[in-house]
TrEMBL record:
The lineage of its organism: Eukaryota, Viridiplantae, Streptophyta, Embryophyta, Tracheophyta. This is UDP-Glycosyltransferase superfamily protein. Keywords: Glycosyltransferase, Transferase. Belongs to the UDP-glycosyltransferase family. One of its GO terms (molecular function) is UDP-glucosyltransferase activity. It comes from Hibiscus syriacus. The keyword Cell cycle does not apply.
Length: 465
């Protein structure tokens, strides 16, 4: 089988009860930057023969659609109502609608599902092929690790952050807020970490994390994970994907377009929007600007989010596209016309740019963005620092200069980005480090299935004595 240019042997495990593939339960954290790469990884596990149940709440069920279409009946949703929480708006089940300060409340709310999940697991044990392990987002570790211990099955943590950031945080926990210290502390009791990264980029840090911090398991680097699809069914957009491609195809010069996007979590203030718009006008570069919809609850009473300056779109007509809502980001970055990417340097966006061989213009804002920028700009030399800070307003003239240079000059960072692209693609091909790590991860889950089978037999023997 071949998916996204990568060949798969189709080797699957057959050691679970009932003769099918080993069955695991996947528990994602409901933020696009977490759930999407975990679904991409689940896709790889399903390709290798595992059976998967994925726990979601109703408004996050849409993220499972590509897997359900491709892998039914080996993947099944397990849908629970989103528990209420006094600090969360009643209709919110996703982090993209909230500032990052609400993240602990999301985790606390989901923690109320521990008991219903425990009951579900117990019920499944009386049937064929029960789940033998929990594979959950590291931010949910405060309760998913406890759930696994109560059920006497292993838990492995999916880590959506880059390895350098996790190594920094684990080494200096005083830099973390109490909630994050609790989450990372609980994750140490898991059977290991799975990173969406690759050995040639962060192998040394992976080894240090495994040696210094992971108490009972190991570390796998399985990235950059190929996307299941272009996520087109998840959210709406103001411009159709075929219109975006047609516009890019009309650009005669390769690497002449700047893509601007700050992910699903970052929403620019009115002043930041004004500065970016002024830089684009002053630079005269061709561009695609992805503008996120305002959050349902803004930080610090900021009601002026994502405001495009009046008349801007008319003034740049023919030079650029402003797209509100979802954009086909992977397709845009891979297009020959796109040469640079002004980004917050979130890990998923950075990996997509690496796979596309695009020059990163880094504006780190929060979370792991600063460590990612340090890695790619300072250590690897495949990115250029532009600005930093969640509320910082860049100098429009200086930003305009950088935009022009990124599309007209063959900079050393662009050459390095192309080299890094080759390394990343080699890692996920058959025989590559990430491909092998995925096979080893499946073997690990298969081993849990064998151990579970032995435990079940012992319980049967005890009950008959």
């Amino acid at each position: 089988m071949e998916v996204n240019g990568v060949k798969y042997s189709g080797k699957g495990s057959t050691c679970a009860a009932g003769g099918g593939g080993v069955h695991i339960c996947v528990i994602p954290f409901p933020a696009c930057g977490h759930i999407l790469p975990l679904m991409d990884l689940t896709h790889q596990l399903l390709l290798r023969g595992l059976k998967v149940t994925i726990m979601v709440t109703p408004k996050n069920l849409c993220y499972l659609n590509p897997l359900l279409l491709l892998h039914s009946p080996n993947v099944q949703p397990l849908v629970f109502p989103f528990p209420s929480h006094p600090s969360l708006p009643r209709d919110v089940e996703q982090m993209q609608d909230l500032p990052i300060s609400f993240l602990p409340h999301i985790v606390e709310a989901l923690g109320k599902l521990q008991q219903p999940l425990h009951q579900w697991f117990r019920a499944k044990r009386s049937g064929k092929s029960p789940p033998v392990a929990i594979f959950s987002d590291i931010l949910l570790a405060p309760w998913t690790v406890n759930l696994a211990m109560d059920l006497d099955i292993p838990n492995i943590c999916f880590v959506p952050f880059n390895v350098a950031a996790v190594y920094f945080w684990l080494g200096k926990p005083s830099f973390l807020l109490p909630f994050y210290r609790e989450a990372f502390g609980a994750s140490m009791e898991s059977k290991g970490f799975v990173f969406n990264s690759f050995k040639d980029l962060e192998g040394q840090k992976m080894g240090l994390v495994e040696k210094k911090f992971v108490r009972h398991g190991r570390v796998w680097g399985v990235g950059p994970l190929p996307p299941v699809n272009e996520r087109g069914a998840i959210t709406s957009t103001s411009t159709r994907p075929n219109e975006v491609l047609a516009w890019l195809d009309s650009c005669e010069v390769d690497d002449s377009v700047v893509f601007i996007g700050f992910g699903t979590q970052i929403t620019l203030t009115k002043h930041q929007m004004k500065a970016v718009a002024a830089a684009l006008e002053e630079s005269g570069v061709r561009f695609i600007w992805s503008v996120k919809e305002p959050m349902k609850r803004a930080e610090d009473g900021d009601d002026d989010q994502s405001m495009i300056p009046q008349g801007f779109e008319d003034r740049v007509k023919g030079k650029g596209l402003v797209i509100k809502g979802w954009v086909p980001q992977v397709t845009i970055l891979k297009h020959r016309a796109v040469g640079s990417y002004l980004t917050h340097c979130g890990w998923n966006s950075a990996l997509e740019a690496i796979v596309a061989g695009v020059l990163l213009l880094a504006w780190p804002m929060q979370a792991d963005h600063f460590q990612i920028t340090s890695l790619l700009a300072d250590e690897v030399g495949a990115a250029i620092r532009v600005c930093k800070g969640l509320r910082t307003v860049p100098d429009a003239t200086e930003l305009a200069r950088i935009l022009v240079k990124s599309t007209t000059v063959k900079q050393t960072q662009r050459v390095r980005a192309m080299e890094l692209q080759k390394t990343a693609l080699a890692a996920i091909k058959e025989g590559g480090s990430s491909y092998q790590a995925l096979d080893e991860l499946v073997e690990q889950f298969s081993g849990f299935g064998i151990d579970c089978g032995k435990t079940d037999k012992m319980n049967i023997l005890r009950s008959s004595m």
